[in-house]
Amino acid sequence: MPDEKVRGRKKHPEGRPPIVKKFGLLIRRLRKEAGLSQEEFAYRAKYHRTYQTFIESGAKTPSIETARKQAEVLNLRLSQLFALLEDDEGSIHN
Question: Which structural domains are found in the chain, ordered by start?
Answer without folding.
Answer: 16-86 (1.10.260.40)
